[in-house]
Amino acid sequence: MKRRFIRAVLASVAAAAALLSPAGPARAQELQLTGPLKGAPAVRHLRLYRKGRLEISPSASFTLLDEYRRTILAGAQLNYAITDWLAIGAWGAAGVVSSATKLTTEIDQTAPRDIRTATEVNHSASPYGGQASFSDQTAKINYIVAPQLTFIPFRGKLAIFNKIFVDSDLYLAAGAAFVGIKERASCGGTKELSCYEPQSFDLASETKIAPTFGVGFRFYPAGFWSLGVEYRAVPFSWNRGGFDTRGSGPNGNYPDGQINSQDDTFKFNQLVTVSIGFYFPTAPKLTD
Amino acid sequence: MKQARRWLLLAAAIVLVPQAAHAQKKPTKGGNTGAATAAPIGGSPAPADADVDPSATPATPPAAGDQTTAAPGAPATPGAPAAGELAAPGGEAAGTPDICQITPDAPQCQVAKEINLNTEAKKSIRAEVYAVQQQYVIKAHRLEIMPYFAFTLNDQFVSHDAPGLALNYYITQVLAVGLNGNWYGGLNSNSGFDFEVRRSAIIEVPLNDYQAGGDLNFTYVPMYGKFAGFGDFIFNYDAYIEGGVGLIRTKPIPVIDPDNRKFDWNNLVNFDVGIGFRIFFNRWLAAIIEVRDIMFFDKIENYQVATGATTLPLNSPQNPLNPATWYDPNTHFTNDVQLQVGLSFFLPTSFDYRLPK
């Protein structure tokens, strides 16, 4: 009798404890699939557009937000994808079109050519009559070569007008850019031309080394080719207008009668690139 | 021997049993393929074809190849016709008793009697199949509230940054009408580039301040998609284009003759076009990035300064205090290109899908 009573009490206490004890926090559990999906990959027959393929993408690049001169560059991107999310390669392009901005035209037409601007604006007589064009002294981009790594973290699908469906990916590229530019040559220093001389407004070639990075979309209408659009930045300092703006006074923020590297100003140079990519081997591999 | 015969008969019967179990009723001439069809068990939705628009068919759509169907809201009953059975009125599977003869008032018998297959077959249905039946976010008939900040992209001399707010109502999944407004006041700022160009080239560049602007816009969403990130998470996005018309208030900053010119705000008609990208965090919240070009014919300061005395009559064209001499006689086409970054809230925050998945 006593034993039965103790058993009953213990059972009641255990039941009460079980009922009254606070529920523990829910914890995520791995789904224990036991059906045909057990162990199945998230995507079957995934097209590996990049992995193990060589990409050659002819491209056209357009500079953005230019102050004095716009440039269109023709080039190509060459990439080999080690995995589907990482590629190594290079982008290179050469300036094929260079045109003056409205500001350049206005300066050309309205800036006085006298002692006040003698070191700033080209005042040499043009062989075609009148003054030399201001646009001739503005800097231009000749070429860009950028070895780079391309990181492809995102891939997916895109529906256009609910009719056209294309695979796509979004990538980030980063590397070092070797930028060949032409800008106004140094003058006014020791053994250099005076900056008043008309010849001092001539441009000289120079190579800038700068970081470059970009983000782009690539669309795959077929396995063999793709369309791409990319935004890229190549920030570096250069003297775009050919002006003497720095070198003397407080913080060196006033003209010093010389053109040199102190007159370079930082510019977050930006480009938009469109490209057509071709891939070798031509057929992408499929996952299981 | 008698025992042996009995065992042989039993063995033959056992061999025949599985064949009888596999036997299916042959399709009737009507083309019945014998696919499953019945009211849903337990009240769950019937297995509908993705190409059938429920809103276009009053009945719960049948599965592909079905010829028989249940009436709307047919209750689930264990006695409903099994797979392969034709649920004709008083329908009876071979060799089984007809439940409708036993209990004619049973719900499934009432339902079955109301169905006329010929009539049902003649009903028009929307057989259009959408490639994506259920987009991640249904925008139709929802209000989008979009606070953002706009950064000037193309003015090297004066930046016109502005906070803004857009309200868009989606008439359909892809088309919206809305309003947006920007407030530039107090945020216009001259750049160092402006100073250096003026100093170096000794030129004056007319500059303008903006105060506010607003537009009536139409938005079209032609593209949507999704990305898998690192094979770990998925985010959905869409891209839109927009265009509209509105007003912008601008005034010149007096730089040619700042001593005599004091400009007031001008209301100018503007047109705008833009392209944007929206990344959804969930079904009611997204981040947006948009490039918008606000185009208008701006009034700028006159390069020419009246050279007469200020004591001349105010309406004299020689008086530099005459406001009529302050503005350039020609308006100038201006593009104010902005980068807008912001958030997008959709209300109501939840929605029901119309089409099956």
Describe the protein.
- The complex is a heterodimer of chains A (288) and B (357).
- Helices cover 10% and strands 48% of the residues of chain A.
- With 288 residues, chain A is mainly beta.
- Chain A has one domain: Porin (Beta Barrel).
- The radius of gyration of chain A is 32 Å and the shape is elongated.
- Chain B is mainly β and 357 residues long.
- Chain B folds into two domains: 30-122, no CATH class; 143-347, Porin (Beta Barrel), CATH 2.40.160.
- The A-B interface holds A 42, 64-65, 67, 85, 103, 106-107, 110-112, 116-117, 120-121, 134, 153-163, 165, 168-170, 241, 243-245, 255, 265 and B 130-132, 153-154, 156, 193, 196-197, 199-203, 205, 222-231, 234.
- Strand 5 (140-160) of chain A pairs antiparallel with strand 6 of chain B.
List the helices and strands and how they pair.
The complex is a heterodimer of chains A (288) and B (357).
Chain A: H1 2-20, E1 47-48, E2 54-64, E3 69-81, E4 86-100, H2 102-110, E5 140-160, E6 164-184, E7 203-220, E8 225-238, E9 247-248, E10 254-255, E11 265-280, E12 285-286
Antiparallel strand pairs in A: 1-12, 2-3, 2-11, 3-4, 4-5, 5-6, 6-7, 7-8, 8-11, 9-10
Chain B: H1 2-22, H2 99-102, H3 107-114, H4 117-122, E1 143-152, E2 158-160, E3 162-170, E4 175-183, E5 188-190, H5 192-201, E6 207-229, E7 233-253, E8 266-280, E9 285-298, E10 332-347
Antiparallel strand pairs in B: 1-3, 1-10, 2-5, 3-4, 4-6, 6-7, 7-8, 8-9, 9-10
Briefly, what CATH class of chain A?
Mainly Beta
Beta-strand fraction estimate of chain B:
25-35%
Q: How many helices of chain B does DSSP assign?
A: 5
Q: H/E order of the elements of chain A?
A: HEEEEHEEEEEEEE
Helicity level of chain A: under 10%
Q: What's the number of domains of chain B?
A: 2
The CATH level-2 architecture of chain A is identified as Beta Barrel
Number of strands of chain A: 12
CATH architecture title of the largest domain in chain B: Beta Barrel
Shape designation of chain B: elongated
Q: Kindly report the spatial arrangement of strands forming the biggest sheet of chain A.
A: 2-3-4-5-6-7-8-11
Helix content range of the residues of chain B, please? 10-25%
Quaternary structure annotation: heterodimer
Give the biggest beta sheet of chain A. Answer: 8 strands, antiparallel, barrel
Cα distance, first to last residue of chain B? Answer: 65 Å
CATH fold assignment of the largest domain in chain B: Porin
Contiguous helical run count of chain A: 2
Largest interface: A-B, 37 and 26 residues
What's the main sheet of chain B like? 8 strands, antiparallel, barrel
